[in-house]
Amino acid sequence: MPGSSKRLPWWKGLTSGERVFTLISVLFVAGAIGWLAHGPGHVLGTVLFAIAFVVGLVGLLLIPSYTRRVVLESACPCCGAVARRTFDKQDTRFPVPCGSCVAYLRNNGHAVVEASLDDVHSAGASRAR
Predict the structure, then answer these.
(1) Which letter does DSSP use for residue 2 in this model?
(2) Which of 19, 39, 69, 116 yields a CA-CA distance of 20 to 30 A from 108?
(3) Alpha helix (H) residue ranges in the chain
(4) Interatomic CA distance for residues 6 and 61, integer angstroms
(5) CA-to-CA distance for 65 and 116, rounded, in angstroms?
(6) What is the Cα–Cα distance from 21 to 23, expressed in whole angstroms?
(7) How far apart are CA 94 and CA 9, in angstroms?
(8) CA–CA separation, 31 and 48 (whole Å)
(9) Structural domains counted in the chain
(10) Terminal CA-to-CA distance of the chain, rounded, Å?
C-alpha cells in the first residue's frame, strides 16, 4: 500500500561490509583478551594482538552510531518502488535518493516522504563546502 512504511530493526540497515567489520571487531577483541589472559609468549604475537584489540575496539565503538539509524521498508511516494532505505537519525539535512527514480526522500520517523527540491539543493551546497 503506497504511503505505508514498515520500520525495521537497526541491524537490517547494515551493509554487508558493516556486518563483517562488526563481527570481526568482536572476534578481535575476544581473541586479544584471550591471548593476553593466557599469558603472551612472543613479543610479535603480543603486538599483533594489541593492534587487533585496538581495531576491534574501534569497531565496537561504531555500534552505537549504527543503532541511531532509522531503517524503513516502504514505497517511494513518487514512483512506488518498494525498497529498504536507511536514514541517519542524527543528520536529517541530507535526503536519501530513491534509487529507482529521481526523487530524494526523507523520513519523518515512521514514513517516507519526498524531499523538496530546495532541501536537495541546500544539502548539496552544504556538502560541497
Answers:
(1) T
(2) 19
(3) 16-38, 43-67, 117-128
(4) 28
(5) 27
(6) 5
(7) 21
(8) 11
(9) 2
(10) 39
Final residue in a domain of this structure, among 45, 67, 89: 67
5 within domain boundaries: no
Per-residue pLDDT reduced to its tens digit, 64-99: 888 888 888 888 888 888 988 888 775 566 788 888
Question: Is there a domain that residue 16 lies in?
Answer: yes
Residue 93's SS3 state is coil
Q: Is the pTM of this model over 0.90?
A: no
In a domain, 1, yes or no: no
- 21 and 59 together in one domain: yes
Residue 26 structural domain: 10-67
Residues 39-71: tens digit of each pLDDT: 767 777 778 888 888 999 998 898 888 888 888
